[in-house]
Structure formats: C-alpha cells, structure tokens
Amino acid sequence: MPEIIVRDLSPEVLADWLAFFDHDAFADNPEWSACYCHFYHFDHETGSWDDRSAKQNRGASSELIQAGRLRGYLAYVNGKPAGWCQAAPRLLIPKLQKDKSLAIDDADQVGSVVCFAVASPHRGGGVANRLLEAASAGFRAQGLAIAEAYPRKNAVGDADNYHGPLSLYIHSGFAPFRELEHVLMVRKDLTGLASV
Q1: Does residue 30 carry a pLDDT above 90?
Q2: What CATH number does the domain located at 4-189 have?
Q3: Residues paired with 7 in a beta bridge
Q4: How many CB atoms lie within 10 A of CB 184?
Q5: Whole-model pTM?
Q6: Residue 175 forms beta bridges with which residues?
Q7: Average pLDDT rounded to a whole number, residues 61-67
Q8: Structural contact between residues 144 and 106, judged by C-beta atoms closer than 8 angstroms
Q9: Cβ atoms of 137 and 149 closer than 8 Å
C-alpha cells in the first residue's frame, strides 16, 4: 500500500494545491472543475455562483490561501497530491455562517469539514480517512472541542458525496446531530482525543 502523507494547506504548498485542482481533482467530473473550493467562501448575495469562471475562483482561492483564510489538508501519494479536504474553524467559512438551517450556538468551538476531493485513481485507498484524521487532529490542536461535517443524505456516486460519505464519518466516531432536508449534520467530540 502506498504511503499517504498529509500536509496542512499553506502558501508553501499552494502550487501543489493548484496543480491538483488544475489537473486531477475533477478529471472525471469536469462540470465541477471551476470550483477551486471557493463555493463556501463566495458571497452569494453579491452575484451568481454559476456566472463565475474557473479563473476567477482559482485567483480568489489563491488569495484566501495566501491570507490563511482558506484552510484544509492536502494528501500526497508517492509525492504527488492525491486528495484534498477543506477543513477550518467554522467561523472562517462564510457560507456556513449565513445558512440559517445550519445555525448553531457553539460555532466558536466547532471545526467544520466542508468537502473532499480525491483523485479517482486513489479513491478507496484510505486517502479520505487520513485527511479526516488530520482535520480532527488539527481542530483539537487549535483548541476546538467539536468536529462537524455535512454528508449528503441519499448521495449517489462520488460527485454527490463531495462532503464525504456518511460511512466515512461514522467509521471515524462522528454521530448524527441534526437532520436537514438534504444533509445530515454529524459531530465528533474532540475533548477526549489524545494529544497529537
């Protein structure tokens, strides 16, 4: 089994992150290739997401990464980026703050796992598990008490499971917290985890 190395997203790995999204992340799902993980940071009140270009989102996400406002983890297999997980303190993800159906009272204690992208040759090889482990450990290291995620209910196929499949979270110790129309909010208590 190939070694999976996970690194925090930072300006130092921006070139790798961009290369992953430019070529591999959505190779089998080209209609999403323009996202560059910017959807949850775009101000949807100021314009239409569907009108944005890949170039706009690529540039905007690059700026957020440079500023430390778009966060997550990049997984490498054999030295090449193979997977990505957007995971950050909930207060740093604008769309979660504005969605009334996702409103919570303890947002300052929550780390949110928003989405995954794993290159198709590496799916089923443990990349998403390693990314989720890194996200949970990272949240705890930042002093957050809860990891939260939003798997889609009745998801069909890899593209539909971009939040991560429910089975991934259950396997990692998450439990249902709130049921919504299309997603199930799940949570994991991080206060009992051993130090990393």
Answers
A1: no
A2: 3.40.630.30
A3: 74
A4: 18
A5: 0.93
A6: 187
A7: 97
A8: no
A9: no
